[in-house]
Write a structure and sequence with these properties.
InterPro entries: LSM_dom_sf, MS_channel_1st, MS_channel_C, MscS_beta-dom_sf, MscS_channel_2nd, MscS_channel_C_sf, MscS_channel_TM-2. This protein is α+β, with helices and mostly antiparallel strands and about 350 residues long. It has helices at about 10-40, 45-55, 60-75, 80-115, 125-150, 155-175, 175-190, 230-235, 260-275, 310-330, 345-360; strands spanning about 5, 5-10, 200, 205-210, 215-220, 225-230, 240, 245-255, 280-290, 295-305. The strands form three sheets. Strands 6-5-4-3-7 form a five-stranded antiparallel β-sheet. A three-stranded antiparallel β-sheet has the order 8-10-9. Helix 1 packs antiparallel against helix 2 (about 45-55) and helix 9 (about 260-275) runs antiparallel to helix 10 (about 310-330).
Amino acid sequence: MQRCWGLPVPDLALAVAAALAAYLAMRLVLRYMIGRMRGIAQHTSNRIDDTVVEVLAGTNRAFLVLAALLVGVGMLELPERWNQRVGQLWFIAVALQAGLWFTRAIGFGLRRYEQRHSSASMTQVSASATLMSWSMRTVLWAVILLAVLSNLGVNITAFVASLGVGGIAIALAMQNILGDLFASLSIAVDKPFEVGDAIGVGGLSGTVQHVGLKTTRLRSLSGEQIVIGNTDLLKQTVKNYRRMDERRIAFKFGVSYRSTPEQLEAIPGIVKRLIESRPSLRLDRVHFQAFGESSLDFEVVYFVTTPDYGLYMDEQQRLNLQMMREFARLGVEFAIPARSLHVLSPEGRRAVAKELATQEEE
């Protein structure tokens, strides 16, 4: 009987035929399953069937070829050592393909998450989803690698221990980067702000454009982009202006000391009437607060019922103009910072000097 590679030719022919048949059968079954699941997915709102279709469509052709070859090799009578190698190859092939399936499922889930959280003006990849996807893929392939090494006879206990020591060294070297990554996760979970929010942090302010794994980018009012590390961002107090229910305004003004008590008594009522006449404003208080160096000081506190900054500026401008008209009608003048300077004549200076000398003698 003719032999090839130490094996009977009829057995090799049978193995090749079995491999070809297995490859064609797997391709046909896979195509049928994908078509069947797509038909089901079109008539249901369930996302599980969509995920199954996406995962099956990601089956690697090299895996089908390798699986078919292993089926053919299984038809041969091989030494025990080779049969053991075939079993190891089966495990590696299935493990790698399973890893590809799970990776594709994770990517599909991330894309679905992005679609649900997209806006008409800006599509923002959620930092939490990105970090979670990266973490899941890292853990997945780490487990697959350890499983493959264990199947090949490698002592993974010592390997894992060495990885632990190396991981500590890497973590120490990358502690700033890892700090920003965890800060990004904290921002994503706690949500102190989101894309599109107007925030102030430290002495900076702007609109959030992007929340990344390491940095957050703001667009300032003057137009430039501000990039802040996530760790540095969370170390400071963040003011989120978009989540303001209403805007509290406190301002002061001063009137001249020439004003009479009757005029001073009338001022709070005038300001109160002007504020309460506006539906978008709510008065808190108006008081004659203090005697200033060159003015009689009043303090006004009121609320704008919406956080709109433009509306606040319009209302403040209107209030200022109305106060000027009402005070002019009342005869009250706004104070101008001034100091009184008394200049003595030569005779007056001599009289003052004489008086001081007399006081010293006494």
